[in-house]
Amino acid sequence: MTLDSMDKQLLNIIQSNLPIDPEPYRKLAEILGTTEEDILGRLKRLIEKGVIRRLGAIFDSRKVGYCGTLCAMKVPEDRIEEVVAVVNSFPGVTHNYLRDHPYNIWFTLLVESQVELENILQEIKKRTGISDMLNLPASRIFKILVNFDLGEDDDA
Amino acid sequence: MMLSQKDIEIIRALQEGLPLVSRPFQVLAQKVGLSEEELLNKVREFVKQGIIRRFGAAVRHQDLGYISNAMVVWEVPEEKIEEIGRLMASFDEISHCYQRPSRPPEWPYNLFTVIHGQTRDECEKIAARLSRASGITSYRLLFSLAEFKKSSMKYFMEK
């Protein structure tokens, strides 16, 4: 979709901060010199078009008490579709990319406990028959630039 | 940090997104049995505690002119990881920098970064510059060829 200059300014502001205020949209309208109605219309459209994936609270998975990891699998070319369907069937899988490496399927997994995490990885291996999997949980985070929603915003 | 049952209810309500009405917090507050003011204070408290990493919009960056992103993975000697991790994190082109375990011999890389550029070529140049700056010469760029899933996590959903 095409974004006009007001859309871009609006996105710029709300990527960092949405006012935590009884009337956040009126506040935004004041900042941008327009009406609350205009802001609400723009947000509705940006959400419908998928430009905005979520509006409001973005949680820190660890502080919420969840365990996360990044996994990579070596999947033969002709099995990618089928394996991806198995992996994506778990709701804790938030992101899944094909990358140009022998470890070609990369997904993030977020779950309530370490036990559940291990169980899901075992289940994926069992159902796909692919055991060549790297489980790479972050041991330290040096940087997450939140404005870049690469997916690792609610990160693993 | 222990979350109360009430906190969990609030998280469930907030993750459905801020409603597009004049008084969105009032709508959410009613759902969880709080006043608008109480919910606003709770949101501020969550932000302060870092439970809410950010109160804003999650935007798909592809729509905003960033064409290419690459995961760049680095093989860093264990004793240098802190220094190199901080150095990488200081570069504007890097949005994410994590330490993860290496799994030699298949996977020798232990520092993961995400870089952004307008083209593949630009990403490669950025990576080369980071390599020179850090002295880490064993690295690889992994470009994403397809996106199979990208969703916002829903916490504490009934199973």
TrEMBL record, chain A:
<dbReference type="InterPro" id="IPR019888">
    <property type="entry name" value="Tscrpt_reg_AsnC-like"/>
</dbReference>
<dbReference type="GO" id="GO:0003677">
    <property type="term" value="F:DNA binding"/>
</dbReference>
<dbReference type="InterPro" id="IPR050684">
    <property type="entry name" value="HTH-Siroheme_Decarb"/>
</dbReference>
<comment type="pathway">
    <text>Porphyrin-containing compound metabolism.</text>
</comment>
<keyword id="KW-0456">Lyase</keyword>
<feature type="domain" description="Siroheme decarboxylase NirL-like HTH">
    <location>
        <begin position="7"/>
        <end position="53"/>
    </location>
</feature>
<protein>
    <recommendedName>
        <fullName>siroheme decarboxylase</fullName>
        <ecNumber>4.1.1.111</ecNumber>
    </recommendedName>
</protein>
<dbReference type="InterPro" id="IPR036390">
    <property type="entry name" value="WH_DNA-bd_sf"/>
</dbReference>
<dbReference type="Pfam" id="PF17805">
    <property type="entry name" value="AsnC_trans_reg2"/>
</dbReference>
<comment type="similarity">
    <text>Belongs to the Ahb/Nir family.</text>
</comment>
<feature type="domain" description="Siroheme decarboxylase AsnC-like ligand binding">
    <location>
        <begin position="63"/>
        <end position="143"/>
    </location>
</feature>
<dbReference type="Pfam" id="PF22451">
    <property type="entry name" value="NirdL-like_HTH"/>
</dbReference>
<dbReference type="InterPro" id="IPR040523">
    <property type="entry name" value="AsnC_trans_reg2"/>
</dbReference>
<dbReference type="InterPro" id="IPR053953">
    <property type="entry name" value="NirdL-like_HTH"/>
</dbReference>
<dbReference type="GO" id="GO:0016829">
    <property type="term" value="F:lyase activity"/>
</dbReference>
<dbReference type="InterPro" id="IPR036388">
    <property type="entry name" value="WH-like_DNA-bd_sf"/>
</dbReference>
<keyword id="KW-0238">DNA-binding</keyword>
From TrEMBL, chain B:
<feature type="domain" description="Siroheme decarboxylase AsnC-like ligand binding">
    <location>
        <begin position="64"/>
        <end position="149"/>
    </location>
</feature>
<dbReference type="Pfam" id="PF22451">
    <property type="entry name" value="NirdL-like_HTH"/>
</dbReference>
<comment type="similarity">
    <text>Belongs to the Ahb/Nir family.</text>
</comment>
<dbReference type="InterPro" id="IPR036390">
    <property type="entry name" value="WH_DNA-bd_sf"/>
</dbReference>
<dbReference type="InterPro" id="IPR019888">
    <property type="entry name" value="Tscrpt_reg_AsnC-like"/>
</dbReference>
<dbReference type="InterPro" id="IPR050684">
    <property type="entry name" value="HTH-Siroheme_Decarb"/>
</dbReference>
<comment type="pathway">
    <text>Porphyrin-containing compound metabolism.</text>
</comment>
<keyword id="KW-0456">Lyase</keyword>
<dbReference type="Pfam" id="PF17805">
    <property type="entry name" value="AsnC_trans_reg2"/>
</dbReference>
<dbReference type="InterPro" id="IPR040523">
    <property type="entry name" value="AsnC_trans_reg2"/>
</dbReference>
<feature type="domain" description="Siroheme decarboxylase NirL-like HTH">
    <location>
        <begin position="7"/>
        <end position="53"/>
    </location>
</feature>
<dbReference type="GO" id="GO:0016829">
    <property type="term" value="F:lyase activity"/>
</dbReference>
<dbReference type="InterPro" id="IPR053953">
    <property type="entry name" value="NirdL-like_HTH"/>
</dbReference>
<protein>
    <recommendedName>
        <fullName>siroheme decarboxylase</fullName>
        <ecNumber>4.1.1.111</ecNumber>
    </recommendedName>
</protein>
